[in-house]
């Protein structure tokens, strides 16, 4: 039997003030939604795209569109943007995919920037530390198919998350992207082991997870 108390991934925290500020900032910079045709014109305009990319990286000024994109894109990239409309989410995903394909160097910098933002949010309120999960307990968990299915549904937003699922959902995308500043070496190794296990044994769910967190 896998007990919730057996698990803890250090550094997983909450930061409601940062979230509230982010939402208020978004509301202040609300701009009319652009049509898909306008979006394609924007993506084709290299000067405008460079301006928005510099805004996203805090390397240049932001117009209202750039500010809103900079606020919402990390949420879409992470897999949940409650304040986005379905059209806005789709357009941001399209924009992120375009930048990833056509501006690979800037994309790498954006990902690093987002990781730092998420890490700062996770670290802004410290949580009482508990012992990390042992390798034996992890292997027991990976052999519990029901338990793994629950965590996969949590990761994909298909079911509620228990405390273990919430921690994995917070830290696994950072490990998947290659950097988890708040993880210990043991936690990084264990999360990599978990991701590898899912990739090998649950290929369909793994493909969904990669799509969801890669934007």
List key phrases describing it:
215 residues, mainly alpha, Antennal chemosensory protein a6, 2 domains, 11 helices, 0% strand, elongated
What does this structure look like?
- With 215 residues, the chain is mainly alpha-helical.
- 68% of the residues lie in helices and 0% in strands.
- Helix 1 (16-28) packs across helix 4 (64-78).
- It starts with 15 loop residues before the first helix and ends with a helix.
Summarize the structure.
By secondary structure, this protein is mainly α. The chain has helices at residues 16-28, 36-44, 46-56, 64-78, 86-102, 104-123, 135-142, 145-155, 163-176, 185-201, 203-214.
Give the percentage of residues in beta strands.
under 5%
Order of helices and strands: HHHHHHHHHHH
Secondary structural class:
mainly alpha
Number of domains: 2
Number of helices: 11
Distance between the termini: 35 Å
What is the class of the largest domain in the CATH system? Mainly Alpha
Shape field: elongated
Largest sheet: none
Q: Count the beta strands.
A: 0
Q: If you consult CATH, what is the topology of the largest domain?
A: Antennal chemosensory protein a6
Describe the SSE topology.
Layout lengths: L15 H13 L7 H9 L1 H11 L7 H15 L7 H17 L1 H20 L11 H8 L2 H11 L7 H14 L8 H17 L1 H12 L1
Helix pairs in contact: 1-4, 3-4, 4-5, 5-6, 8-9, 9-10, 10-11
């Amino acid at each position: 039997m896998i007990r919730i108390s057996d698990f803890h991934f250090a550094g997983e925290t909450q930061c409601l003030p940062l979230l509230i500020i982010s939402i208020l900032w978004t509301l202040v910079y609300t701009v009319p939604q652009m049509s898909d045709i306008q979006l394609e014109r924007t993506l084709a305009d290299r000067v405008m795209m460079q301006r928005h990319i510099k805004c996203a990286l805090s390397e240049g000024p932001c117009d209202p569109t750039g500010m809103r994109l900079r606020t919402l894109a990390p949420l879409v990239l992470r897999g949940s943007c409650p304040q986005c409309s379905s059209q806005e989410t789709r357009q941001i995903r399209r924009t992120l995919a375009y930048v990833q394909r056509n501006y690979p160097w800037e994309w790498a910098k954006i990902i690093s920037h987002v990781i730092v933002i998420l890490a700062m949010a996770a670290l802004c309120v410290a949580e009482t530390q508990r012992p990390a999960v042992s390798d034996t307990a992890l292997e027991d968990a990976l052999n519990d198919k029901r338990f793994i299915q629950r965590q996969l549904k949590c990761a994909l937003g298909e079911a509620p998350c228990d405390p273990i699922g919430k921690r994995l959902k917070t830290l696994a995308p950072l490990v998947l992207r290659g950097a988890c500043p708040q993880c210990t070496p043991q936690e990084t190794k264990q999360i990599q082991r978990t991701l590898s296990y899912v990739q090998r044994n649950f290929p369909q769910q793994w493909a969904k997870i990669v799509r969801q967190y890669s934007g």
